[in-house]
Amino acid sequence: MNLIDYQDSRPIYEQIVENFKLQMYKGILQADEQMPSVRSLAMELSTNPNTVQKAYAELERQGFIYTVKGRGNFVKGNASLMDNKKSELIDAIVKLFREAEEIGIPIEDLIKEIKSKIGQISNQNGGLQTRGNDKGGKA
């Protein structure tokens, strides 16, 4: 489990929080799945157990995990997590559109360029998936 990037300027506990949240959003960590113990994760990451405990406390505060006394920490089975993240992303996008409009970039132009970029990304991903799924050995 590679949760820490020492080149990242963010505190280690924040990196741990963000990486676990990403794993939950992607479905890698499922509802009611037990999290690694504080001590084992601290040893695995070569960091202080207090850092991991701080990350777990933040995850619990944000509603991503819950604690069972004597048993450990578990992923919260909250189906609305993805809805909350989607809403958060939409709010951020709307904020960017407003900023673009304020500095004189027409929204239609922005949407056109975004669609173009999304098309490029889709084409790149499609190409990678095709190669990765190609079992026929064709070059």
The residue fraction in helices comes out at 55-70%
Strand content: 5-15%
The end-to-end span amounts to 34 Å
Which runs of at least 5 residues are low in confidence (pLDDT < 50)?
Answer: 127-139
Element order: H for helix, E for strand: HHHEEHH
Secondary structural class: mainly alpha
Tally the helices: 5
Strand order of the largest sheet: 1-2
Gyration radius, rounded: 20 Å
Task: Provide a descriptive summary of the structure in words.
A hairpin with a 3-residue loop joins strand 1 and strand 2 (72-75). The protein has helices at 12-25, 38-45, 49-61, 80-102, 107-133; strands at residues 65-68, 72-75. The model is unreliable at 127-139 (pLDDT under 50). It is mainly alpha-helical. Helix 1 crosses helix 3 and helix 2 packs across helix 3.
Helix-strand blueprint:
Blueprint: H1 12-25, H2 38-45, H3 49-61, E1 65-68, E2 72-75, H4 80-102, H5 107-133
Antiparallel strand pairs: 1-2
Helix pairs in contact: 1-3, 2-3
Task: Name the features.
elongated; 139 residues; disordered C terminus; mainly alpha
Write a concise synopsis of the structure shown.
The chain is mainly alpha-helical. It is built from 5 helices and 2 strands, in the order αααββαα. α1 packs across α3 and α2 packs across α3.
